[in-house]
């Protein structure tokens, strides 16, 4: 994959309106401030957890309690205080090697369980490398979840230093550990920033590292992002696929450097209209605007994917024909979701779905019943049929609660980033409750 720039926030990403949507490039790095009370609470809780031995059942429960409290604090810190959607943005957090060691690795695990994708350990010189490697070892984390941030001097040999570190020093560490380079706007002339980022991207090579711009503006980040791409179109535009959070294609559009910047500035789907020869802010006319979650570049570096939530006061339509997609109405589970949302508002007489919406006990009983039938042995066709039943009743429950497919996808993506796993044993009281429901039938 192409090495692309992303923001690193020395200040909070909520400190400026211009910074709120910069994480939509798909990645963001956070430098917690040493005097941040919320962050220090997390560190203290993780150290408290590490100091509890696992020699008795009671101690294990206490340690588990502290772990859950720490993860909740970290989740609130990331989502509420920093306004980051960890389910779709790859969040890196820079942690002190000293804090990592003092917490016996609990601090690093805590932030990964809270949704961070990477733990960043900064390296300055050989002594710093030794300390960083100690912190990595004590944390016992998958090496692909760790970034070593090598501090380089931005002089005329900068790009060569990147090349040397990427090809030589990285080879002496675990091969899955990534190299990261931070570029500060204070040390690089604005006119040279895009050129430097493009050169570093080429020197870094595919999937070997990353480029972090320190507290950039939307314009700086967007133009630097585009500088790492290529296009063979005479008009310089980039082919862009617009998708839902479930990777369903809504339509095909085009982007320019200016539209990428505009999208990052406002956090919405903004594209380039070839018919208007200018920016196209989706929804300004129709009211069907899009919330931007993430911008990705394809493996060849010449096409974009915008991941969005399609909104609309009347209907959620991307297409000018008032359908969700430019290929007509969706099928499968997305079609079911749309039908259920309509039934919730205006169900025809005799609707079974309406009955389920209104009778909580019936809906609960059917969920338990269908889940029990799915658990029984059967043919492939039988299992598919029972799964469809479970999905229907589960979607009724979700629709009634205002939960969408995308909400469930968000939760799955967030859980996928956890490194601490539960045993997953069955819960006796839940089994008993289910048996009582089934016994009534």
Annotation keywords:
441 residues, alpha/beta, seven-stranded parallel barrel
Helix-strand blueprint:
Layout (H helix, E strand, L loop, with lengths): L4 E5 L17 E4 L6 H14 L6 H25 L8 E5 L2 H6 L3 H8 L4 E6 L1 H15 L6 E5 L7 H15 L5 E7 L5 H15 L4 E6 L3 H10 L10 E6 L5 E7 L1 H10 L3 E4 L4 E4 L8 E8 L5 E8 L21 H14 L6 H7 L1 H16 L4 H21 L4 H11 L12 H12 L2
Distance between the termini: 56 Å
Poorly predicted sequence stretches spanning 5 or more consecutive residues: 166-175
Average pLDDT metric: 87
The share of residues in helices is 40-55%
Strand order of the largest sheet: 1-2-3-4-5-6-7
Q: What is the radius of gyration computed over CA atoms, rounded to a whole number of angstroms?
A: 25 Å
Strand content range: 15-25%
Shape: flat
- The arrangement of helices and strands along the chain is EEHHEHHEHEHEHEHEEHEEEEHHHHHH
Please give the number of β-strands: 13
Question: Structural class, judged by helices and strands?
Answer: alpha/beta
What's the story with the biggest beta sheet?
7 strands, parallel, barrel
Count of helix runs: 15
Task: Provide an overview of this structure.
Helix content is 45%, strand content 17%. The protein contains 15 helices and 13 strands. β6 (178-184), α7 (190-204) and β7 (209-214) form a beta-alpha-beta unit. The chain starts with a strand and ends with a helix.
Short description:
The protein is an alpha/beta fold and 441 residues long.
């Amino acid at each position: 994959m192409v090495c692309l720039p992303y923001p690193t926030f020395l200040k909070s990403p909520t400190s400026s309106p211009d910074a709120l949507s910069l994480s939509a490039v798909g990645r963001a790095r956070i430098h917690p401030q040493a005097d941040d009370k919320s962050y220090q609470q997390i560190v203290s809780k993780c150290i408290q957890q590490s100091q509890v031995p696992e020699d008795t059942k009671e101690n294990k429960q206490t340690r588990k309690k502290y772990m859950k409290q720490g993860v909740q604090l970290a989740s609130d810190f990331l989502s509420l205080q920093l306004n980051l959607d960890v389910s779709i943005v790859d969040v890196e957090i820079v942690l002190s090697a000293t804090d990592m060691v003092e917490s016996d690795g609990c601090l690093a695990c805590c932030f990964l369980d809270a949704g961070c994708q990477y733990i960043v350990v900064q390296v300055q010189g050989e002594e710093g490398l030794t300390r960083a490697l100690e912190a990595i070892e004590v944390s016992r984390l998958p090496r692909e979840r760790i970034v070593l941030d090598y501090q380089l001097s931005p002089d005329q040999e900068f790009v060569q230093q990147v090349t040397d570190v990427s090809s030589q020093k990285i080879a002496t560490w675990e091969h899955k550990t990534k190299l990261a380079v931070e570029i500060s706007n204070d040390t690089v002339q604005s006119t040279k920033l895009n050129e430097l980022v493009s050169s570093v991207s080429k020197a870094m090579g595919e999937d070997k590292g990353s480029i972090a711009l320190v507290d950039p503006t939307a314009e700086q980040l967007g133009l630097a992002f585009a500088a790492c791409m290529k296009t063979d179109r005479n008009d310089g535009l980039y082919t862009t696929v617009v998708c839902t959070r479930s990777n369903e294609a809504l339509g095909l559009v085009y982007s320019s450097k200016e539209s990428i910047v505009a999208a990052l500035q406002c956090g919405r789907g903004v594209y380039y209209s070839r018919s208007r020869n200018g920016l196209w802010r989706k929804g300004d006319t129709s009211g069907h605007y899009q919330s931007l979650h993430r911008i990705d570049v394809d493996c060849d570096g010449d096409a974009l994917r915008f991941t969005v939530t399609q909104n609309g006061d009347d209907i959620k339509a991307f297409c000018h024909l008032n359908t969700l997609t430019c290929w007509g109405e969706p099928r499968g589970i997305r079609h079911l979701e749309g039908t259920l949302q309509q039934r919730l508002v205006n169900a025809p007489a005799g609707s079974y779905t309406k009955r389920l919406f209104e009778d909580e006990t019936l809906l609960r009983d059917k969920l338990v019943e269908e889940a029990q039938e799915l658990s029984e042995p059967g043919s492939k066709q039988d299992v598919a049929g029972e799964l469809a039943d479970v999905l229907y009743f589960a979607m009724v429950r979700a629709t009634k609660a205002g939960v969408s497919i995308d909400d469930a996808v968000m939760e799955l993506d967030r859980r996928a980033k956890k490194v601490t796993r539960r045993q997953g044993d069955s819960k006796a009281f839940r089994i008993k409750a289910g048996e009582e429901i089934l016994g009534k039938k």
